[in-house]
Design brief:
The complex is a heterodimer of chains A (230) and B (798). With 230 residues, chain A is mostly helical. Chain A folds into two domains: 4-180, no CATH class; 185-229. Helix content of chain A is 58%, strand content 0%. In chain A, helix 2 packs across helix 8 and helix 5 runs parallel beside helix 6. Chain B folds into three domains: 1-96 and 108-211, MFS general substrate transporter like domains (Growth Hormone, Chain: A), CATH 1.20.1250.20; 219-453, Growth Hormone, Chain: A; 567-795, Vaccinia Virus protein VP39 (Rossmann fold), CATH 3.40.50. Chain B is an alpha/beta fold and 798 residues long. Chain B contains 27 helices and 14 strands. Classes of the chains: A mainly alpha (230), B alpha/beta (798). Chains A and B meet through helix 5, helix 6, helix 7, helix 9 and helix 10 of A and helix 9, helix 11, strand 13, helix 24 and helix 25 of B.
């Protein structure tokens, strides 16, 4: 069976334009932080892997005020925390992305980039956020192909590294498994040769025994009826 | 032509009675549930009305010189059923009990369902039951009473067969309860109008006068025929119900399996009635003693039942061997149940069907055939009534379904021993007596073995115990599973899962179930603490305890407090089973829990006490001395929700109730039910419904999602990618946002998240999806019209 990742990657010819849209169009003032690239990637993976609680250790040496953005996102949008939006002593201005995360709503779109030419430092987070927004507000129509994660996978040519690609690919396969389910159970049953053979065997047995019972009763009725005149 | 018309009347009447019976249970369920006592009340009242109707039909047939009273009675039936359809729901709502059941008191809804069944369905059933004896009386005036009785009985039975198949599988599912009742009223109106027209033109109204009542006799039948009718009626019911339960560990108890088994048994009885009618006429015409033939037939039937009880499991193993996926089993079980019903019970049921026409023919005094028919039918029905009350509720849990079959055989054999007439030369020991004796002796021996040894019907690998309860066969199975990860999630989120381990897990399964389960327990306490249930849906349901309210942290918005560890979390678990969800909550939620659980089958809780350490759950945790657990058993969850005091509010309502293995009980997934729950949810309270099947796209999940979206405004589905059969549908009144978990930091002393919950949290955040009515389809399920069983059948391959 062809997996979703294979399907998505077969559309690589679209990768370049999409990469352009994702990266150039994905400019955001979340880039206002000054984290090293490796830390940003670790922070993204923590959310990708379902370990938002690990952000504390990932960002331990980089916490200032209420940022950086992955930390705000994990506490106020991805999960919830009643911690105040503005931490005393913070001198840092709140970015659009941080303001959006503090708002905590899934009705509002993840903010469009203000422009300015910088590269989005969190392309994977953008894909994760938009994927979640899409699922939670619009539903499963078109997923997983329509998922921003699929677009991300295409744009990055199968992920920024092998593990990331594999992980996102599995995630997309899981979406297929979870949302499409077995739409046609009867079709699936027909494909199960052993079960079908059993069903045929039982049907034959049923029809044979029904015929036998009818014939026997009919014959018995004739026999007892004929005795009437004797 | 006239005779054919009579046979059609018998068939339509039989159909209408059965359709009414199913519609009655369906109409009462939203108010009183579908617990054993509600079924017993409905069936009991209907059988009682049938008994009285048969008696009245026999008497009326003798007194009346025209069939017009019968046709007028159908007119009354029509009016009554229309009133029942229109006013029934209002009456039921007025009779809904309030407050939770008290110890030693009557079950909830017992009185209400009894009153409703009497008022709504007693009179029309009584009137319809007059048909058969009345028609037999008509036929008897032309002679050939035996054949006529057999034919009318057979056609009535065929009508019942159609009713018991078409009503639950199609009419109630597709048309809804009210429309089904209108169809019943229409059938009665058709009989009334066509009968009166025929009578007006002189085709069906005037009674022939070939049979003249003997004024010197009272028309009552001899006591031995009363006993024979009573016992044979009881035995037929034992065998019908016993047969379904006997085969349940292989084929389950789906609507189709019930309809197949009961339908084919009714067909065999109808064939037997046709045979018996002719046989009785022929035998008595040549001066033979009908009793020898009757009791010989009953003895042979008893012997055949003994053989079925003995060889049944081997045959059933051959028709449905172990290893067929539970979710693909239904088409195989559908055909298998038909084949095995005929192979095991076809011959004995044909032989039992011989009894009524023989009894009428032999018991009738000159000129009193109608009255005799009425009495035979009435006593047979009284036997059926006793069978209904005793089989599922008392006998199956006591002696098992195999024991029930053997008890039926013993009763039939005993009848022969007691009443088989002596041979012509006066010697007692004739072939009929010997046959009956052999059957009784065999049944007694096998029954003794059954009661002492209690061998399980079906043995699965690792099976510890099999318990046959009033509702199902519960199987306790131990499996040694390699818990590297739950399914393919291993490849996705290894970091979220505790270290791989071999774990011995105990599952509670029921009936045909071979892979799924209603409760699970990892035996090792250490591993259990690490794994919880290993990523199964219980963790996903328990996650609801950690949902945060909707709020904004933007500067200037009102501050929100963190979850308060001192606050008591009120949880309602509908479908408590062995308490696995409750155990998971206790292991993961570090605050006080006040849990109200509802479990319809008390035996499940007994088994959980014995095998799943349920005793631990009844005591407060040491850190939370105010933990509280109340479990209501023997009640339908809908009845309990209906009866909850308005002051009883919950933070979390979890619906995990299943009937007959794979079916969401219809009354627990309707607009009205969700509205009832809404009234008992706190402002930030969530309801989660576990839907088992084929994923989010399955028709049942779609219908439940659509209904929840309709009631609550929005609904989200949380699939479990590791076990994609289960989807949890989540909703909160007025929610604008999908459920969001508290961050670990916000949980404070309530957290951090248990390692075993990490996977559930990951699945919620990565795969939760909104049910969107515009793109996902589905229908709104209501108390009146809920085709949820039909959708489940479609999902499962039928």
């Amino acid at each position: 069976m062809r997996t979703t990742i294979q399907h998505v990657l077969s559309l690589r010819r679209l990768a370049l334009p999409l990469l352009g849209v994702l990266l150039l169009g994905g400019l955001t003032d979340a880039s206002a932080d000054d984290l090293p690239d490796a830390v940003r990637a670790d922070a993204e993976y923590a959310l990708l892997d379902g370990r938002p609680q690990d952000l504390d250790s990932v960002l331990a040496n980089h916490r200032r005020g209420y940022g950086p953005f992955p930390w705000v996102l994990a506490r106020h949008w991805w999960r919830k925390s009643p911690a105040p939006a503005v931490v005393a002593g913070s001198t840092k201005a709140m970015t659009d992305a941080e303001r959006w995360a503090f708002e905590g709503s899934s009705e509002l779109p993840y903010p469009a980039p203000p422009g300015g030419g910088a590269v989005d430092p969190y392309p994977l987070l953008r894909a994760l956020i938009n994927d979640r927004l899409l699922r939670e507000t619009q539903g499963s129509a078109g997923l997983p192909e329509a998922s921003p994660l699929a677009a991300y996978l295409m744009a990055t040519g199968g992920g920024r590294d092998k593990d990331e690609g594999r992980f996102i690919g599995f995630a997309l396969d899981m979406m297929t498994r979870s949302y499409r389910g077995d739409d046609d159970a009867a079709e699936e049953f027909r494909a199960d040769a052993a079960a079908r053979k059993l069903q045929d065997q039982n049907r034959l047995l049923y029809l044979t025994s029904l015929g036998a019972l009818l014939v026997l009763t009919f014959v018995a009725t004739l026999v007892v009826g004929r005795k009437r005149g004797s | 032509m006239e005779r054919l018309a009579h046979l059609c009347v018998a068939a339509v009447s039989g159909f209408t009675i059965l359709a009414l019976e199913f519609a009655a249970v369906r109409q009462l369920a939203p108010a009183f549930g579908q617990a054993q006592h509600v079924w017993a009340n409905v069936i009991g009242i209907i059988l009682l009305a049938l008994t009285l109707g048969y008696r009245m039909g026999g008497r009326l047939g003798e007194r009346s010189s025209t069939a017009r009273p019968l046709f007028l009675a159908y007119g009354l039936v029509c009016v009554w059923v229309v009133l029942a359809a229109l006013l029934g729901p209002t009456l039921c709502r007025a009779l809904i009990p309030t407050g939770l059941p008290t110890e030693g008191g009557l079950p909830l809804g017992f009185t209400g369902s009894l009153i409703a069944a009497v008022l709504l369905y007693g009179p029309p059933t009584f009137l319809l039951a007059m048909t058969s004896p009345f028609l037999i009386r008509l036929a008897a005036r032309r002679g050939g009473e035996g054949a006529a009785t057999g034919a009318i009985y057979a056609f009535g039975t065929v009508g019942s067969l159609v009713g018991c198949t078409v009503a639950p599988l199609w009419m109630l599912q597709v048309l809804g309860t009210r429309m089904t009742l209108f169809w019943c009223a229409g059938a009665a109106a058709l009989l009334c109008v066509s009968g009166l027209i025929a009578a007006h033109f002189g085709h069906a109204g005037a009674l022939p006068d070939a049979e003249v009542p003997d004024p010197t006799t009272r028309g009552g039948i001899a006591r031995r025929w009363v006993v024979t009718a009573l016992i044979s009626g009881w035995a037929v019911t034992l065998l019908e119900f016993g047969a379904v339960r006997f085969m349940a560990p292989w084929f389950g108890q789906s609507n189709h399996v019930w309809a197949n088994i009961i339908g084919l048994i009714l067909l065999a009885l109808a064939l037997g009635s046709l045979l018996g009618g002719r046989w009785a006429d022929a035998a008595l015409a040549r001066g033979a003693h009908g009793g020898r033939m009757l009791f010989g037939a009953l003895g042979a039937a008893a012997l055949a039942v003994c053989v079925a009880a003995l060889v049944g499991p081997s045959l059933l193993d051959a028709l449905l061997p172990a290893g067929v996926d539970s979710l693909r089993i239904l088409p195989v079980a559908h055909q298998g149940s038909k084949a095995s019903a005929l192979l095991l019970f076809g011959v004995p049921m044909v032989l039992l069907g011989v009894a009524p026409p023989f009894l009428v023919r032999m018991a009738a005094r000159p000129g009193h055939t109608g009255r005799a028919a009425g009495q035979v039918f009435a006593w047979t029905t009284v036997g059926g009534l006793l069978g209904c009350f005793t089989t599922s509720a008392v006998l199956v849990p006591w002696i098992g379904s195999r024991g029930v079959l053997l008890l039926g055989a013993l009763a039939l054999g005993g009848l022969g021993l007691a009443f088989a007439p002596p041979r012509a030369n006066g010697k007692r020991v004739g072939p009929a007596w010997m046959l009956a004796g052999l059957a009784a002796l065999t049944a007694l021996g096998l029954l003794g073995h059954q009661m002492v040894e209690r061998p399980p019907l079906r043995v699965h690998p690792g099976q510890i115990e099999e318990v046959e309860s009033a509702y199902q066969a519960i199987r306790v199975v131990r499996e040694n599973l390699w818990m590297g990860a739950p399914g393919p999630a291993d490849q996705v989120v290894p970091a979220l899962l505790p270290a791989a381990a071999q774990t011995s897990t105990i599952f509670l399964r029921h009936d045909e179930d071979a892979e799924t389960y209603q409760s699970a327990l990892i035996e090792s306490e250490v591993k259990q603490r690490a794994w919880l249930t290993g990523g199964r849906y219980f963790e996903h349901m328990a996650l609801g305890a950690f949902f945060a309210p909707e709020f904004s942290s933007t500067p200037g918005t009102p501050p929100v407090s963190a979850p308060d560890p001192k606050r008591v979390l009120d949880v309602l678990i509908l479908g408590y089973a062995g308490g696995t969800v409750h155990r998971t909550l206790r292991q993961t939620y570090h605050g006080t829990l006040n849990v109200l659980g509802v479990e319809i089958d008390p035996a499940v809780l007994d088994v959980a006490r014995k095998h799943l350490r349920h005793g631990e759950l009844t005591k407060p945790r040491s850190a939370h001395p105010n933990d509280r657990l109340r479990v209501v058993t023997g009640e339908d969850a809908r009845t309990v929700v209906n009866a909850l005091p308005s002051s009883e509010l919950f933070d979390l309502v979890l619906v995990d109730a299943y009937a007959r293995t794979n079916y969401v009980p219809f009354q627990l997934a309707t607009e009205e039910f969700f509205n009832k729950v809404k009234a008992h949810l706190r402002p930030n309270g969530w309801i989660g419904v576990n839907v088992l099947g084929h994923g989010f796209r399955g028709p049942v999940a779609k219908a439940v999602g659509h209904t929840m979206d309709h009631v609550y405004g929005r609904c989200w589905a949380a699939p479990n990618p590791a076990y994609p059969g289960n989807v949890i549908m989540w909703a909160r009144p007025g929610a604008k946002q999908a459920p969001r978990l508290w961050s670990s930091e916000a949980l404070g002393s309530l957290g951090p998240y248990h390692p075993g919950m990490q996977y559930a949290a990951f699945a919620l955040e990565r795969y939760l999806v909104r049910y969107n009515p515009a793109t996902d389809g589905g229908i709104v399920l209501t108390d009146d019209r809920s085709p949820s069983d039909r959708l489940a059948d479609r999902e499962l391959g039928l």
